[in-house]
């Protein structure tokens, strides 16, 4: 097929392989439109006045930033935003630290019961969150964690998925690096922190992105575990625009639009670390 | 500065023994090369000395201290790995400085030592590069720099040159040997390459299947190999081994299983040169001719064996012709046909 793409044979390819391509592009295009339309409408609606929101044109007739001013100055939106940021950042840092600590241990140390521990961790992946919410709630109630930051965060401080992901990545770190560091006199914790962790930055970035996004948008558990408005996270807070004085779509959309900003930042900052092949450079070429 | 001593050292993986109770004393400042075929237990032995592998039995002493239970970092040894294992996320400078991780020197003092090590290894212009921007030879030099900057009691090398091309390997052999001469530190060096062993070692330790067959200076091993395996392993091309019998001091090739094995190095088995009173004469049909320049290797079949002999450079020997090769007195190594142990020379 490679020869077909040379300029000289272009006319032929038009009829030969385009059907497949066209199909692929069409599917991708439709998928893209489906994904991006709600986002465009979100931004569009956030620029409309309350009276215009059912006027479904994409470009608002008289765009205004009034909604933004209102969302940011009235009510507790900023507080919710900071709550979400605090929760998502804490949980992300905790996952990056503990998931990789456990993943590294499972990948690089041989000890009795290692496989058993690993299987036990993996098996928790099979339990759906819905089933866990009630035990979490009862546990929080008994321990007095309801309606607190810790109560929102504790179920996600470590995840089986993150541990699994990190274990798989640490297994690709050659033992030679670890042994070289041992010879250089580092203790095991420092070897993990100074040598192994920098070698898996792509995985750490991916884990951080997933965890941050997951917690930034988390709705169900924060809703259940909090009662005071001061502790609402952004998604929970946004729904209060809907329940109190009818549904204020323009306010919800404005809040949601602001809420996307940190996710974009996190993604843009971290994705450049997701580059392959860092690790091999220290070994034979 | 340190001496190493292995006493009845044993290693088993699960139930599989891989090192069978070896004894060895390495005096201070000696350059010892462990050599043997792949899988014979060289790395395992070295890694036990390093402390990276647990000892299953026996003792390892560094100086007069038993180190079986001592952590690698407490042993004050530095190791260079086959794959270099320099940290890819650090610059050359940081990599070398990592060798000083545990030292209590001031920052300035450390920097000075790093610079000195880099200068010694010709790495000064590369100090701020990352490993990905270095060639194989440069990476290995960084690994050596990281090892030497700490001024350890001993160096351990595990096949450090086997990933380099032939030319670079020859150059690095000389560099490492020169480094040893200047630093005078004890070195235990593992390789499967007998040329490396011959050219670098003060003493060669020949290993096979978890046993030490012979530990002696290179020329001693070359001249008086302790058994057939060592005789064939050291020296290229390998020593010819033929079943032989001895009648009243006269050697002749034997058929089938013989009480004796005669070993003759190709270099000592000559074609076309006059040998007075030869110890052994072999005749056969030439199967291959390899001119090397200064001399020519002649392969032929004799006594049912494949034999390699040498002929003068410009001798005209054709494949298929018959040749007679002879070895002078004192050039034939005799081995016991059953145990393959050396019995002396004839
Ligand atoms: N971690 C291990 N588990 C089981 N067997 C091993 C392990 N490491 C090495 N071996 C075995 O021990 C023997 C010696 O290995 P090694 O010391 O690496 O040989 P060499 O370095 O001489 O090539 C080999 O047969 C190898 O298969
Ligand atoms: Mg080895």
UniProtKB/TrEMBL annotation, chain A:
<feature type="transmembrane region" description="Helical">
    <location>
        <begin position="251"/>
        <end position="270"/>
    </location>
</feature>
<feature type="transmembrane region" description="Helical">
    <location>
        <begin position="80"/>
        <end position="104"/>
    </location>
</feature>
<feature type="transmembrane region" description="Helical">
    <location>
        <begin position="116"/>
        <end position="138"/>
    </location>
</feature>
<feature type="transmembrane region" description="Helical">
    <location>
        <begin position="22"/>
        <end position="43"/>
    </location>
</feature>
<dbReference type="Pfam" id="PF00528">
    <property type="entry name" value="BPD_transp_1"/>
</dbReference>
<protein>
    <submittedName>
        <fullName>Carbohydrate ABC transporter permease</fullName>
    </submittedName>
</protein>
<comment type="similarity">
    <text>Belongs to the binding-protein-dependent transport system permease family.</text>
</comment>
<dbReference type="InterPro" id="IPR035906">
    <property type="entry name" value="MetI-like_sf"/>
</dbReference>
<dbReference type="InterPro" id="IPR000515">
    <property type="entry name" value="MetI-like"/>
</dbReference>
<feature type="transmembrane region" description="Helical">
    <location>
        <begin position="150"/>
        <end position="170"/>
    </location>
</feature>
<keyword id="KW-1133">Transmembrane helix</keyword>
<keyword id="KW-0813">Transport</keyword>
<feature type="domain" description="ABC transmembrane type-1">
    <location>
        <begin position="81"/>
        <end position="270"/>
    </location>
</feature>
<keyword id="KW-0812">Transmembrane</keyword>
<keyword id="KW-0472">Membrane</keyword>
<feature type="transmembrane region" description="Helical">
    <location>
        <begin position="191"/>
        <end position="213"/>
    </location>
</feature>
<keyword id="KW-1003">Cell membrane</keyword>
From TrEMBL, chain B:
<keyword id="KW-0813">Transport</keyword>
<dbReference type="InterPro" id="IPR027417">
    <property type="entry name" value="P-loop_NTPase"/>
</dbReference>
<dbReference type="InterPro" id="IPR012340">
    <property type="entry name" value="NA-bd_OB-fold"/>
</dbReference>
<dbReference type="InterPro" id="IPR013611">
    <property type="entry name" value="Transp-assoc_OB_typ2"/>
</dbReference>
<dbReference type="InterPro" id="IPR017871">
    <property type="entry name" value="ABC_transporter-like_CS"/>
</dbReference>
<keyword id="KW-0067">ATP-binding</keyword>
<dbReference type="InterPro" id="IPR015855">
    <property type="entry name" value="ABC_transpr_MalK-like"/>
</dbReference>
<keyword id="KW-0547">Nucleotide-binding</keyword>
<dbReference type="InterPro" id="IPR003593">
    <property type="entry name" value="AAA+_ATPase"/>
</dbReference>
<dbReference type="Pfam" id="PF08402">
    <property type="entry name" value="TOBE_2"/>
</dbReference>
<dbReference type="GO" id="GO:0005524">
    <property type="term" value="F:ATP binding"/>
</dbReference>
<dbReference type="InterPro" id="IPR047641">
    <property type="entry name" value="ABC_transpr_MalK/UgpC-like"/>
</dbReference>
<dbReference type="InterPro" id="IPR008995">
    <property type="entry name" value="Mo/tungstate-bd_C_term_dom"/>
</dbReference>
<dbReference type="InterPro" id="IPR003439">
    <property type="entry name" value="ABC_transporter-like_ATP-bd"/>
</dbReference>
<comment type="similarity">
    <text>Belongs to the ABC transporter superfamily.</text>
</comment>
<protein>
    <submittedName>
        <fullName>Sn-glycerol-3-phosphate ABC transporter ATP-binding protein UgpC</fullName>
    </submittedName>
</protein>
<feature type="domain" description="ABC transporter">
    <location>
        <begin position="4"/>
        <end position="234"/>
    </location>
</feature>
<dbReference type="Pfam" id="PF00005">
    <property type="entry name" value="ABC_tran"/>
</dbReference>
């Amino acid at each position: 097929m490679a020869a077909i793409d040379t300029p000289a044979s272009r006319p032929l390819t038009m009829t030969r392989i385009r059907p497949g391509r066209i199909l692929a592009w069409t599917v991708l295009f439709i998928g893209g439109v489906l994904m991006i339309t709600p986002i465009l409408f979100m931004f569009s609606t956030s620029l409309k006045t309350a009276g215009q929101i059912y006027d479904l044109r994409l470009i608002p007739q008289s765009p205004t930033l009034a909604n933004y001013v209102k969302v940011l100055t009235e009510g507790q939106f900023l507080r919710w935003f900071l709550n979400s940021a605090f929760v998502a950042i804490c949980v992300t840092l905790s996952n990056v630290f503990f998931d990789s600590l456990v993943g590294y241990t499972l990948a690089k140390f041989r000890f009795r019961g290692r496989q058993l521990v690993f299987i036990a961790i993996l098996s928790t992946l099979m339990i759906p969150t819905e089933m866990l919410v009630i035990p979490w709630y009862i546990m929080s109630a008994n321990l007095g964690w309801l309606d607190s930051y810790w109560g929102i965060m504790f179920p996600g401080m470590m995840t089986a998925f993150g541990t699994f992901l990190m274990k798989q990545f640490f297994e690709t770190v050659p033992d030679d690096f670890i042994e070289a560091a041992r010879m250089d006199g580092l203790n095991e914790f420092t070897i993990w922190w100074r040598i192994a962790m920098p070698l898996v930055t792509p995985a750490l970035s991916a884990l951080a992105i997933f965890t941050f996004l997951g917690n930034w948008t988390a709705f169900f558990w924060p809703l259940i575990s909090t009662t005071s408005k001061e502790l609402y996270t952004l998604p929970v807070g946004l729904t209060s625009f809907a329940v109190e004085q009818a549904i204020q779509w323009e306010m919800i959309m404005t809040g949601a639009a602001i809420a996307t900003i940190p996710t974009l930042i996190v993604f843009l900052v971290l994705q450049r670390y997701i580059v392959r092949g860092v690790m091999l450079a220290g070994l034979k070429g | 500065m340190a001496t190493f001593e292995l006493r009845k050292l044993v290693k088993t993986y699960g139930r599989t023994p891989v090192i069978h109770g070896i004894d060895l004393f390495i005096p201070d400042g000696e350059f010892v090369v462990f050599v043997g075929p792949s899988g014979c237990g060289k790395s395992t032995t070295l890694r036990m000395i390093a402390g990276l592998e647990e000892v299953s039995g026996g003792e390892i002493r560094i100086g007069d201290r038993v180190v079986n239970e001592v952590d690698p970092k407490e042993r004050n040894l530095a190791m260079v790995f086959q794959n270099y294992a320099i940290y890819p996320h650090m610059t050359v400078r940081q990599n070398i400085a990592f060798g000083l991780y545990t030292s209590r020197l001031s920052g300035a003092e450390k920097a000075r030592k790093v610079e000195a090590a880099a200068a010694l290894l010709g790495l000064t212009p590369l100090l701020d590069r990352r490993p990905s921007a270095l060639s194989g030879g440069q990476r290995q030099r960084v690994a050596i720099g990281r090892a030497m900057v700490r001024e350890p009691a001993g160096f351990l090398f595990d096949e450090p040159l086997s990933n380099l091309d032939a030319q670079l390997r020859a150059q690095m052999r000389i560099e490492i040997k020169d480094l040893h001469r200047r630093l005078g530190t004890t070195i235990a060096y593992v390789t499967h390459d007998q040329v490396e062993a011959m050219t670098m070692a003060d003493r060669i330790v020949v290993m096979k299947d978890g046993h030490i067959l012979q530990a002696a200076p290179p020329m001693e091993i070359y001249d008086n190999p302790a058994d057939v395996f060592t005789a064939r392993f050291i020296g290229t091309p390998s020593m010819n081994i033929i079943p032989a019998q001895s009648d009243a001091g006269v050697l002749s090739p034997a058929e089938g299983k013989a009480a004796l094995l005669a070993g003759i190095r190709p270099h000592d088995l000559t074609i076309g040169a006059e040998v007075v009173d030869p110890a052994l004469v072999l005749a056969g049909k030439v199967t291959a001719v390899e001119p090397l320049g200064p001399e020519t290797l002649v392969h032929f079949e004799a006594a049912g064996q494949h034999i390699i002999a040498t002929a003068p450079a410009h001798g005209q020997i054709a494949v298929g012709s018959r040749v007679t090769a002879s070895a002078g007195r004192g050039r034939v190594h005799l081995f016991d046909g059953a145990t393959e142990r050396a019995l002396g020379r004839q």
